[in-house]
Amino acid sequence: MFGRTKNKAWKNLENIYKHFKDTQMKDLFATDPKRGELYAEQLETMLVDYSKNRIDDKVLEALFGLARERGLKEKINDMFSGKKINTTENRAVLHIALRNRANTPIYVDGRDVMPQINATLEKVKDFSEAVRLGRFTGYTGKKLTNIVNIGIGGSDLGPYMVCEALRHYWAKGINCYFISNIDGTGCAEVLNKIDPETTLFIVASKTFTTIETLTNARTCRKWLVDALGEHAVAKHFIALSTNKEEVEKFGINPDNMFAFWDFVGGRYSVWSAIGMIIAIAIGYKNFERILDGAFTMDEHFKNTEFEHNIPVILALIGIWYNNFYGVHRYGVIPYDQYLQYLPAYLQQLDMESNGKSVTLDNKYVDYATGPALFGGAGTNVQHSFFQLLHQGTEIVPIDLIVPAISHNEIGAHHQILLANVLAQGEALMRGKTEEEAAAEMEAAGKSQAEINRMKKYKSFSGNRPTNTIVLKKVDPFTLGMLVAMYEHKVFVQSVIWNVNAFDQFGVELGKKLALNILPELQGTAHNIEHDSSTAALIKYIKNIRK
Ligand code: G6Q
Question: Cα-Cα-Cα-Cα dihedral of 397, 28, 472, 290, to 10°?
């Protein structure tokens, strides 16, 4: 069996872990009063405090050693220089080129990709402004104010998350909608709310062959044609795709197609034409600020030594828990209503990228790779799953993300929110001993019998890790930095695990089997071989639907 576990840096970390594993964070804080300042990095409008982790200098040094042994620096340079690091698909990985604000040439197969990227950005700019200013109108001359993005996975989660995160910046009168699921409910609920004369459909599909997107797009097209006639399609449908032929086949004018390229993975595509709905909603200038923020993080990631490199530090701390503490789950909790869809976005980014079991050298791994990621907006989740985070049997490392300034500073709302996020990090780290719980109950006048009965229930083991990420505000620039930070974190972990973060063969098998089952449900195919569970389920459902 091949594995990381045979490497020197890995062995070193295993040894350190043996002695370090029970170290209490509160002791580390007690012995080093400057810990909170030392284990924190600031970049422009973002502060990342990683001091509430089970780490010290020795652990960090060993983790940086692992990154060096894995050739991380070279791997970063490979990505930024357009090398085909997506080896299973023989593609370069150039989401960083989409926000390369320095416009320095980046070559793929001897050709600079920047001119085509800039040309598409210009086209996105012109079109988004034309829609916003009412220069590009619907078929009947009305302004397009309902913008509907039809896409799924990477062609949905990014634009959806960013549009919601930047809702504060939406132009007055513009409404954005997202149709992704094949479940007809998604389509029906949106179409019920909008008027065909004022609706622009954006069909977002890199391949333009995705069954969900094309089915939804056809349903929307029929709805529009029924209302306004065939000629209206050119004024109400645009496509974001790499596949001109299929776009034309669908009946969308190629002039209304906005291109991107196979060196941009779906889940990394929000910075490209896939961001069209964002540019329409918040304006192209603000869209560019998102790119500026991402570029700032890219430069930091590429040029900063590991010891101060935010994505590298976060990635290595994640490795420490995943591979040495054996903790294979991880939470992201944005304390901001606008960021409520960030966990869903990061779930795809992280789990589709690093949920892999075969190395770049074509061998099965013998160590854990990507953790399961979950999350939700605070303070809401404090009233749901935080119980397990505080008193469950397993530790669950989490990122707490909060803006220092809210777009909606109403009364004391934001101060209360801030107090909560800080308190959670403190409580998870510090915990409460049985003695402390007993003393509290005593002070509250409880009987000794009551104290003895309740003190275990009321104690908290603590020593539970958090990163606290403070954003100045949820603005386009800071959001760009934040998302790019997570992209690079995921990449660093893929380098340590020696897996390809940029393919996703794992989504294919289920899709293929669905194509087998569909004709059975429709009654056009019979007796396809299934396991007895699947066969019985098909029979049961068909009976109900008769
Ligand atoms: C992302 C994946 C996947 C993809 C969707 C939609 O990295 O590749 O989520 O984005 O399957 O694909 P299309 O954009 O081709 O419709």
Answer: -50
Two structure tokens written together for 367: 């160590």
Give the pTM: 0.97
Q: Give the separation between CA 475 and CA 365, rounded to whole angstroms.
A: 40
Choice from 210, 213, 261, 353 to test ligand 1 binding pocket (greatest atom count within 8 A of CB)? 210
CA of 153 to the centre of ligand 1 (A): 5
Instruction: Determine which residue's CA is closest to atom 13 belonging to ligand 1.
Output: 205
Q: Is the peptide bond before 304 cis (omega within 30 degrees of 0)?
A: no
| Token couple for 9 | 């840096």
Q: Which secondary-structure segment (H or E) carries 176?
A: strand 175-179
* Count of CB atoms situated within 10 Å of the CB of 453: 12
Q: How far is CA 533 from CA 56, 188, 510, in A?
A: 51, 32, 16
Alpha-carbon distance of 113 to 260, in angstroms, equals: 11
Structure tokens given for 463: 């020593």
* Run means of pLDDT, 10 residues per run, the chain, 546 residues: 71 97 97 97 98 98 97 98 97 98 97 97 97 97 98 98 98 97 97 98 95 97 97 96 92 91 96 97 98 98 98 98 97 98 98 97 96 98 97 96 98 98 98 98 98 98 98 98 98 98 94 90 86 93 93
Distance from the alpha carbon of residue 204 to the mean position of ligand 1, in angstroms:
9
319 near 63, Cβ under 8 Å? yes
For 293, phi then psi, to 5°, come to: -65, -45
- Beta partners for residue 468, in sequence order: 49, 400
Tokens in use for 521? 């449900």
Q: Which residue(s) pair with 467 in the sheet?
A: 399
Give the whole-angstrom CA distance, residue 14 versus residue 27: 22
Give, to the nearest 10 degrees, the angle between helix 342-354 and helix 476-497: 20
CB 197 within 8 A of CB 138: yes
User: Which ranges of 355-475 does DSSP label H, i.e. alpha helix?
Assistant: 386-391, 413-430, 434-443, 448-454
Name the pairing type of β-strands 466-471 and 372-375: unpaired
Rounded Cα gap, residues 406 and 109, in angstroms = 46
Longest dimension (CA), the chain: 82
List helix spans (H) across 87-177: 95-98, 114-132, 157-165
Dihedral of CA 162/164/167/172: which sign?
A: positive
* b/e sequence 484-502, b meaning 16+ C-beta within 10 Å: bbbbbbbbbbbbbbbbbbb
Q: Ligand 1: residues whose CB is within 6 Å?
A: 152-155, 205-207, 210, 213, 265-267, 352, 504
Both structure tokens of 182: 């094949």
Q: 49 — phi, psi (to 5°)? A: -100, 115
Which residues, other chains included, contact 291 with Cβ-Cβ below 8 Å and sequence gap of 6+?
98, 99, 101, 271, 480
**Pairing between β-strand 46-49 and β-strand 40-43 as defined by DSSP bridges:** antiparallel
Burial of 144 (0-12, 13-18, 19+ CB in 10 A): buried
- Protein residue closest via CA to atom 10 of ligand 1: 154
Six-digit token string for 285: 């200038």
